[in-house]
Amino acid sequence: MSDPKNTVLVTGAAMGIGKAVAENLVAAGKSVVLMDVNGDALAETVRALGPRAVASVGSVANPADSEAAVALAIERFGGLGGLSHNAGIQRYGDVVTTSRELWDEVMSVNLTGAFLVAKAAMPQLRQHKGAVVLTASIQGMAAQKGALAYVVAKHGLIGLVTGMAMDEAENGVRVNGVAPGSVDTPMLRWAIGLDPDPASLDAVIDGMHPLGRRGKPEEIASVIAFLLSDQASFMTGETVRVDGGVLARIAGAPKPEDRVRK
């Protein structure tokens, strides 16, 4: 039986950042329980990862599904020592055009889902002095136009990081977050495909990052793996930007070559 301390529940694990997290952890010798609503993609990911990975098909919006994933971790690996929450959806609309149904959909996955999976996992995490990392977004620190529900949910997710970190410190559980910029995931490619001029938007997205490109899932995963590890043993309540410098840039500031020389 595996060491429960080295077992991590990874949500949103069928593809994108969650999949990259699972790959990183298994490569480091960890065991993982992968949770996602996409059963076919999840099964494929688990097959590729081998015996240290098991699938738990379900939605973080359903508390019974999160409880089942934790139970599977106990059954297969003896317990649970980490949680990497990456499940999320992107929807668009402002305060007028966002329907109540769309609002509830986004909140149920992006914010309430994080609460529910953390709630299900926390007894095990307390027992094994584990760690939690929630994947938020730079839109939890700033905002783009026309994505109100997503922005609010990601702001709330960063609040969940801070609040849980304070509550769980005395229990030996660390809680941190990451706030990625644009990352080359299926969700980003889907969003770009909604634009009337996807090629132009592609270039804009790369150009808004000072490093000149979007991130890769594995680049976010490496930060998450660090925060889950004992190397980050004195970090809690922190949300780390992994954004290629987007929020460090002064918007509208002229480049040196654009300045008029006198």
From TrEMBL:
The keyword Lipid biosynthesis does not apply. It comes from the Bacteria. PROSITE patterns: ADH_SHORT. GO terms for molecular function: oxidoreductase activity. Pfam families: adh_short_C2. Signal peptide: none annotated. Transmembrane segments: none annotated. Keywords: NAD, Oxidoreductase. Residues 6-172 form the Ketoreductase domain. Belongs to the short-chain dehydrogenases/reductases (SDR) family. PANTHER family: DEHYDROGENASES, SHORT CHAIN, ESTRADIOL 17-BETA-DEHYDROGENASE 8-RELATED. This is SDR family oxidoreductase. It comes from Paradevosia shaoguanensis.
